[in-house]
Design brief:
heterodimer; A: 518 residues; alpha/beta; FAD/NAD(P)-binding domain; Guanine Nucleotide Dissociation Inhibitor, domain 2; 18 strands; B: 399 residues; alpha+beta; Gyrase A, domain 2; Elongation Factor Tu (Ef-tu), domain 3; 6-stranded antiparallel β-barrel; 8 helices; globular
Chain lengths: 518, 399
């Protein structure tokens, strides 16, 4: 073998690319191995019908860490953040829609009290999100270790909460952090339409509903991730972001090999010494970093029998059952949403008219059924970005909740019925919708697992909940990017701080590896 | 799980074993103890007399409460090899091996014996309940694990005349059975399994039958042994013998790792003097990485067998180095009637290269309610206190 690498990275998803770029920039010889034909993982732009393209999974860019953009000089590598900033419009069947902007709200017959309360609420939540935000780009502390650095990290977190927030705000923070978003919204607002729309942000992409404890935390987490940026539709789709990342990584000297699926991690004497590609070819390097989800990494690529029994058990028990589906459609022309001006269609349109609506949608998923009336986040990205569809035609990209991974009877038999439901639900807001659509693609969690290799089809590589966050992500004993297997590291969404096109896990993993080698 | 339970079983504090009717007849003053939920005799008549049955004649102890699990399937060997610290690929069918198993941190969960019946079938015998840990450890292996504590009755037959008794019972070929070997005999339409194992470091066997045959076995055994000094014994006598033999006991000499709450209250196999059971050169097993680190960094504790001056057992005594510096604590202690020595196990908190030439025990003892204290010199004893050639002789002697 002629190639000598310092680092092998399994998976060229956005975190794998961020990690590769940082390590290559620090002088490591890096090889990234990607199973599909292009880098990007699930953060790609993909043709789903001839001439029509959409972001395959996440479609709104609002969490990409500015530090990552700066450090890796991503703009020079083609990152285009000129896409339109978008507002959220919560649709109402009667056309009395609610428009939510970062600093104001209007519509839906809101009273003045709610309008004022919204401004205060966002200010209050952003203050808390600011306390959490610095944690996103840090390696979580180890609770079991009494070392000085760990003690300082914990003390730092405590300091931020106590002295950063001050006594009054700290009390408020500690009171609400474990609460459910349903009850918190009741304390603040009157309008149910507003409560429904805000509650959606707390549960989107999770297996939770608004009455579940921990949904205030997920809401704050979402705010913390996007604190310094406004939601944007990425020009060219999400694939343009990973293309820029891949370009940056290769410019620093990293090598990306596509169509190279890794079959397992090569172990010798309990240490990771390389990988074995499908087909049997071995590649060796002192460090192996996995961007795959924790279950895939530990139970498939390493194998339970090569782990301690306790760790294998905890990994097996990780909650990673996706409940969000992705809907892609070709539209012959723009549909007419009742009461919505054509020039507002480029925004983020959500169907979450009340918290009860979300709860009822969730109920079905508890019993292995898809929601009868799902919550939907709709974007029409081709309005701002003509590269995604032929002139005059459009694509729709929507996240649909709840579509449980473990659907009773299986998805293959029910995908069409689900799509029918979705068309009916959207048609209630846009009566001519059915006439406009032609091609349809629906990626259920099962499809997402199949296509992108994410266990359970969970976008975050594991539920984002208190028991699987910070120093518990993915589980204690392997929450600092380093695994118990010497030479093997995690850099994906299954590690802190989780998913969303953030780049934080990849950034943190690279820094943990660089710091560990010193 | 066991196939069926008496629905009212939960109303009883402890369950009877299959030998209960015979034990109850012999028990003089209701010295029942609970052994993992089963009624077990502390002693029948007198601990000393029962102890001497182990060393001078033939003792019989009801072993049925021992937690027993059947492990089978094509990955059974790989599964056990990943779970226990000892290299199980070396254990051949028809053989028994003693081992310990650890948690992820390399701390002992329990010790026990592994019986290999054939290529893909094993029995694990443990002091503690292990079903949950077995299930946790089974992820990724093609194995079936079933609890057979209820289904299998067992007797430990130990002592110099034990071979003579079993021969008299008509177990032909038993004279060829070597230590840690297993033999099967047809038994009243069922099967009797005999293993040459025990917890006494003496000539002895363990007898295993389905529970329905338990009383038949007991009666035939006692009939065969009536001229060989056969005697039912309780756990008290065994405790003396096992300390003489140098065998540690879970919950006495270490707290099983799954029960410890406080930091540093658990023990690794290296800290229990069981380094000989830890095969770091075999494929991955639970605790291996932690044990490699421990070997590198040094252990927190040292296990020692002590020969202590005087004749007062050093129960729970502190051990000091040079009269001044606390070095550890006694975990098991007894006056050895056969060795005529005051013996003990201790767990010391000293570095591995620390000299152990000036150890003292602070022994407290009572005479007619008056407490006295004595400083007694301790000598570290490397070999077992009791290890007679008859333990290993094959064919065994007809005493």
């Amino acid at each position: 073998m002629t190639d000598r690498y310092d680092v092998l990275i399994i998976g060229a998803g956005h975190n794998g690319l961020v990690c590769a770029a940082y390590l290559a920039k620090a002088g490591r010889k890096v090889l990234v191995l990607e199973r599909s034909d292009q880098p990007g993982g699930a953060a790609i732009t993909r043709e789903f019908a001839p001439g029509f393209k959409v972001s395959a999974c996440a479609h709104i860019l609002h969490m990409l860490q500015p530090k990552v953009v700066r450090d890796l000089n991503l703009k020079a590598h083609g990152l285009d953040l000129s896409g339109p900033s978008i507002d959220t419009i919560s649709l109402a069947e009667d056309g009395n829609h609610l428009t939510i902007r970062p600093q104001s709200i209007e519509g839906a017959q809101l009273n003045e009290a709610d309008k004022a309360a919204y401004v205060a609420f966002i200010k209050r939540m952003e203050r808390f999100a600011k306390t959490l935000a610095p944690q996103l780009l840090k390696t979580p502390p180890r609770l079991a270790s009494a070392g000085f650095r760990n003690a300082m990290k914990l003390a730092g977190m405590g300091w931020d909460i106590r002295f950063g927030l001050g006594k009054k705000r700290m009390r408020d923070f500690l009171r609400i952090i474990g609460m459910n978003i349903h009850d918190l919204l009741d304390e603040v607002f009157e309008s149910e339409a507003l409560k429904g729309a805000l509650a959606l942000d707390a549960v989107l992409g999770t297996a939770m509903e608004p009455r579940m404890p921990g949904t205030v935390l997920t809401y704050l987490y979402r705010l913390a991730g996007g604190l310094k940026s406004t939601p944007t539709l990425p020009m060219g789709g999400m694939g343009s972001v990973t293309a820029a990342l891949a370009d940056a990584a290769t410019s620093f000297g990293a090598e990306i090999r596509t169509a190279a699926p890794v079959e397992r991690v090569l172990l010798e004497g309990g240490r990771a010494v390389g990988i074995v590609l499908a087909g049997g070819k071995e590649l060796r390097a002192p460090s192996v970093i996995s961007n795959a989800d924790p279950k895939t990494t530990f139970l498939k690529l390493v194998g339970a029998r090569n782990l301690e029994a306790g760790l294998a058990h905890r990994i097996g028990n990780l909650r990673a059952s996706g409940r969000a589906a992705k809907l892609h459609m070709v539209l012959n022309s723009l549909p007419d949403f009742t009461g919505l001006r054509q020039d507002a269609l480029g925004n983020r349109l959500v169907i979450a008219p009340s918290r009860k609506y979300l709860e009822r949608a969730f109920n079905h998923s508890k019993y292995g059924e898809f929601s009868d009336a799902p919550a939907i986040e709709i974007t029409l990205p081709s309005i701002a970005d003509p590269s995604l569809a032929p002139a005059g035609k459009h694509v729709l990209s929507a996240i649909v909740q709840y579509a449980p991974y473990d659907l009773k009877g299986g998805w293959d038999a029910q995908r069409d019925a689900f799509v029918e439901r979705l068309v009916d639900v959207i048609s209630a807001y846009a009566p001519d919708f059915r006439d406009k659509m032609t091609a349809v693609e629906c990626l259920t969690p099962v499809d997402i697992e199949r296509e992108f290799g994410m266990t359970g089809g969970h976008w975050h590589h594991g539920e984002l909940a208190l028991d699987q966050m910070f120093m518990m992500r993915p589980t204690y004993g392997t929450a600092q990017y380093r695994t118990p297997i010497n030479g093997l590291y995690l850099c994906g969404a299954g590690a802190h701080p989780g998913g969303g096109v953030m780049g934080a896990a990849g950034h943190n993993a690279a820094h943990a590896i660089i710091a560990g080698d010193r | 799980m066991p196939a069926k339970y008496d629905k009212e079983h939960f109303r009883k504090h402890s369950l009877p074993t299959p030998f209960y009717p015979r034990l109850a007849e012999l028990l003089q003053d209701s010295s029942w103890k609970s052994w993992k939920g089963y009624l077990s005799a502390g002693y029948f008549e007198n601990v000393e007399i029962e102890y001497f049955a182990i060393r001078n004649a033939c003792s019989v102890m009801d072993l049925s409460p021992m937690c027993k699990y059947r492990i089978s399937g094509q990955d059974a060997e790989a599964f056990l090899n990943r779970m226990v610290t000892r290299d199980m690929s070396k254990l051949k069918p028809g053989r028994v091996g003693y081992s310990v198993w650890c948690n992820d941190q390399g701390k002992v969960i329990d010790d026990g014996t592994v019986f290999r019946f054939d290529e893909n079938t094993y029995r694990l015998c443990a002091y503690e309940r292990q079903y949950e840990w077995l299930m946790i450890s089974s992820a990724g292996f093609d194995v079936d694990i079933s609890e057979e504590t209820e289904a299998v009755a067992a007797l430990s037959v130990q002592g110099p005349t034990s071979f003579a008794v079993l021969s008299k019972m008509g177990l032909s070929g038993i004279e060829t059975l070597k230590p840690f070997g297993i033999m099967h005999f047809p038994y009243h339409g069922s099967e009797l399994m005999v293993s040459r194992t025990g917890f006494t470091a003496d000539l002895g066997y363990e007898l295993w039958v389905e529970s329905a045959k338990a009383l038949t076995l007991w009666d035939e055994l006692f009939e065969a042994g009536k001229h060989h000094g056969i005697r039912a014994i309780g756990t008290g006598a065994l405790d003396i013998a096992r300390i003489e033999a140098g065998f540690i006991q879970a919950a006495d000499d270490f707290t099983p790792a799954n029960h410890t709450i406080r930091k540093d209250h658990d023990r690794s196999p290296l800290e229990l003097g069981l380094g000989w059971l830890v095969h770091l050169d075999k494929p991955n097993f639970t605790g291996r990485r932690a044990l490699i680190r421990e070997k590198d960094k040094g252990s927190r504790y040292r296990f020692v067998k002590l020969d202590i001056d005087g004749n007062k057992p050093a129960h729970a005594s502190y051990i000091f180095h040079g009269h001044k510096k606390k070095a550890g604590v006694v975990t098991s202690a007894v006056w050895s009637p056969t060795c005529k020595k005051n013996i003990a196990f201790a767990s010391l908190e000293v570095a591995r290269d620390h000299p152990l030439d000036d150890l003292w025990a602070e022994v407290y003892y009572q005479r007619e309610l008056q407490w006295s204290r004595a400083w007694q010199r301790c000598r570290v004893h490397d070999a077992p206190f009791w290890n007679p050639p008859r333990r290993r002789a094959t064919p065994p002697g007809l005493f």
